Amino acid sequence: MKSYILVFLQFFIIFLMILPVGAPTEDLEIGLSVFGFGTLIGVLALLKNEMGNFNIRPDIKEDCTLVTTGIYAYIRHPMYTAVLIMMGAIVIMYPVKALFVLYSVLIVVLLIKMFYEESLWKCKSEEYINYTQSTKRVIPFIF
To answer: What is the predicted pLDDT for the residue at 53?
Structure first.
């Protein structure tokens, strides 16, 4: 149930954040470049991750395998990174107070989801515990 709530919150916040799309923008070129960079990270993660492993919920599938190559060699959660970058781009293009607040809430929701997913992986796999020693969560070399 916790997984479903976290995914619902994530997508509801994203939905609210994209509502102003089409309104007058600021820094459109920068925002689109940042959005494109986030999209590239997401695509790299999907290409490296076997689709049988992909799960939008933080639950661990029974027969999944840990992916530690490609972009996963640098960060453990590239899809979260991609979402944060793309939604950050929306804030750049539409810099209104409500979007800053929604983005902050999105960060909190994704952190909760990330820590929950990691706790499940740590219970399932010694390999994951070792993997956490050589990678960061969402920002290479930082966090």
So the answer is: 75
3-state secondary structure of 65: coil
- Which H/E stretch holds residue 69? none
Please tell me the total count of domains within the chain. Answer: 1
Domain that holds residue 119: 2-17+26-54+62-134
Ramachandran angles phi, psi of 123, nearest 5°: -70, -30
**What is residue 48's predicted lDDT score, i.e. its pLDDT?**
81
Report if pTM > 0.85: yes
Tell me the mean pLDDT in the region 89-116.
Answer: 96
Tell me the C-alpha distance between 6 and 28, whole Å: 30
What length does the chain have? Answer: 143
Question: DSSP per residue over 88-113, as a string?
Answer: HHHHHHS--HHHHHHHHHHHHHHHHH
